[in-house]
């Protein structure tokens, strides 16, 4: 079961959609959603927690992705994953039987590198070794900036203190993203957000955030899809960063109850998600049945 937001009455109501339901029940979905059927051109999809959790596939996700592609909607995968390079991430997804091409993936690491290049910075990179490939060719000697991603093996006092001193001397602090936590196979785990916040507090500065939920991230992801924000929808497991960020950028958003989702997350953002679905396959069903 998933829930849709009725734009006329401005409150939530349950709306069950199952195979074989009568046309009258289908038409009972939110009026605002029905009015926007013809506008949808693209779907942005989160990866970790939405399609997979580490090396475990969300049940039915590869097949659901195939169904979505058959609709002729443009598809792009947008992720805050910073523990591995885009190439390593692609290899993982293809091993998990997802039909995805490298050019379809837009990562917060890509956005961070773009910012570093635009500003001609020499960053101190607080990243896992497996993610450094995405910064190949970037000068890092005598750093005049700090870039922080998810780096469990480097979040120790010595490394963080080095970053603290660089920022304290006036260097910009760049957060690849500021997620509070994410889902691993052994449970929830701290994201880079708490460590970025600690550096902000210690240096009395504010980080520039480049990944989700920043508006510029979503607009960059849509740039080569030839569609406007109002013609796109985002599917993700993070109410704030995926759905809230997308909706603040002018897209619509669907929240899935896998990955890092916790009960009640849909009520933590405003506007509320367009729909809250059990998982990615149900989100795809919702799009195919109600939005196109």
Describe this structure in words.
Helix content is 32%, strand content 21%. It has 292 residues and is α/β, with parallel strands linked by helices. The protein has 2 domains: 3-80 and 214-291, HAD superfamily/HAD-like (Rossmann fold), CATH 3.40.50; 109-209, Rossmann fold (3-Layer(aba) Sandwich), CATH 3.40.50.1000. Helix 3 (61-70) packs parallel to helix 10 and helix 6 crosses helix 7 (193-203). The two termini are 20 Å apart.
Order of helices and strands: EEHHEEEHEHEHEEHEEEHEHEHEEH
From the alpha carbons, calculate the radius of gyration and give it in angstroms: 20 Å
Identify the CATH homologous superfamily of the largest domain.
HAD superfamily/HAD-like
Find the structural class using helix and strand composition.
alpha/beta
Mean pLDDT: 88
| Beta-strand segment tally | 16
CATH topology title of the largest domain: Rossmann fold
Task: Report the end-to-end length measured between terminal Cα atoms.
Answer: 20 Å
Instruction: Tell me the CATH architecture of the largest domain.
Output: 3-Layer(aba) Sandwich
Strand order of the largest sheet: 2-1-16-15-14-3-6-7
User: What is the overall number of helices?
Assistant: 10
Helix content: 25-40%
């Amino acid at each position: 079961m998933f829930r849709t937001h009725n734009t006329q009455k401005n409150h939530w109501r349950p709306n069950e959609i199952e195979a074989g339901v009568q046309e009258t029940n289908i038409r009972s979905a939110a009026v605002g959603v029905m009015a926007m059927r013809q506008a949808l051109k693209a779907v942005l999809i989160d990866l970790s927690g939405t399609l997979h959790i580490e090396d475990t596939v969300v049940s039915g996700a590869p097949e659901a992705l195939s169904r979505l592609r058959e609709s002729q909607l443009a598809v792009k995968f947008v992720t805050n994953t910073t523990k591995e390079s885009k190439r390593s991430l692609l290899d993982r997804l293809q091993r998990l039987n997802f039909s995805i091409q490298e050019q379809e993936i837009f990562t917060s690491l890509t956005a961070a590198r773009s910012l570093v290049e635009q500003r001609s910075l020499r960053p101190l990179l607080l990243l896992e070794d497996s993610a450094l490939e995405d910064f190949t060719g970037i000068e890092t000697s005598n750093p005049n900036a700090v870039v922080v991603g998810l780096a469990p093996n480097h979040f120790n006092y010595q490394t963080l203190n080095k970053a603290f001193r660089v920022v304290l001397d006036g260097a910009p602090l760049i957060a690849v993203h500021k997620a509070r936590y994410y889902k691993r196979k052994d449970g929830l785990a701290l994201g880079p957000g708490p460590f970025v916040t600690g550096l902000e507090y210690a240096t009395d500065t504010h980080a520039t955030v480049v990944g989700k939920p920043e508006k510029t991230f979503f607009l960059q992801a849509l740039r080569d899809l030839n569609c406007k924000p109002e013609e796109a929808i985002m599917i993700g497991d993070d109410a704030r960063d995926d759905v809230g960020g997308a909706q603040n950028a002018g897209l619509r958003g669907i929240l899935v109850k896998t990955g890092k989702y916790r009960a009640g997350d849909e009520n933590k953002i405003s506007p509320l998600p367009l729909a809250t679905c059990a998982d990615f396959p149900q989100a795809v069903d919702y799009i195919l049945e109600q939005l196109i």
